[in-house]
Amino acid sequence: MPEKILINSFQKIIYLIAFSGFLLFHLPSAAQQGSYERFFTAILRDDVRTLERLAEAGFDLNAPSPDLEPPLFLAVKSESLRAARFLIERPEVNVDARGSADENALMIAALKGQLDLVEALIARRAQVNKPGWTPLHYAATHKGPNAPAITRLLLEHHAFIDAESPNKTTPLMMAAHYGHPMVVRILLEEGADPMARNEQGLTAIDFAHRAGRTDMAELIASFVRQRQPRGTW
């Protein structure tokens, strides 16, 4: 009996040693935890100097936030533009990492009309096309003055002009409802299908009418009429 107790005690000691080793290996040190907090605080504060110091110290610039958002995505979303540029320029940063809603940094930059970030991300070979919602959908949603240039840039880099969202909504539909009038014109001139329908059976004209944008609806309808063959007598 005493021998059995001794064996059990020995096994417990071995287990505790092994478990302690596991914790030491897998849990971040206090210094690492401090670096982690400083990293995301620096992103939100657009503090490039701190980001540079952490990078020099070997901090992982792809470490996800507590909400599992990629750092670059978070910088663009927070409009920390200097921090975003710093991260884009670092070759080890994954520019295609997606957030919890399956959005990448290029999509958010397009949505916010950040033309310089879109250019920098494309220069880093960021993913222009992806299944589901795409950067072109997001560019088409933006109303600001940079929306046409971003739209053209994405199309020049082979963005699928009639890309379908999960419910088959196209960039033209988004532009008709939310976007810049010039973006609607660009998409039409570059070959977007004005008669495509989403899962609810709605066309881009329907999207425009639902938003009360009769000018957009008429622009699309006029384009459709121009494409129709004219009879001869």
Features:
233 residues; Serine Threonine Protein Phosphatase 5, Tetratricopeptide repeat; 2 domains; 0% strand
Structural features, described:
- This protein has 233 residues and is mainly α.
- The protein has helices spanning 2-26, 30-45, 48-56, 71-77, 81-89, 105-111, 115-123, 135-141, 147-156, 171-178, 181-189, 204-210, 214-227.
- It has two domains: 46-127, Alpha Horseshoe (Serine Threonine Protein Phosphatase 5, Tetratricopeptide repeat); 131-228, Alpha Horseshoe (Serine Threonine Protein Phosphatase 5, Tetratricopeptide repeat), CATH 1.25.40.20.
- The chain is elongated, with a radius of gyration of 26 Å.
- The chain starts with a helix and ends in a 6-residue tail after the last helix.
- Residues 1-31 have low confidence and may be disordered.
- ANK repeats lie at residues 131-166, 167-199.
- One of its GO terms (molecular function) is ubiquitin-protein transferase activity.
- InterPro entries: Ankyrin_rpt, Ankyrin_rpt-contain_sf.
- Pfam families: Ank (PF00023), Ank_2 (PF12796).
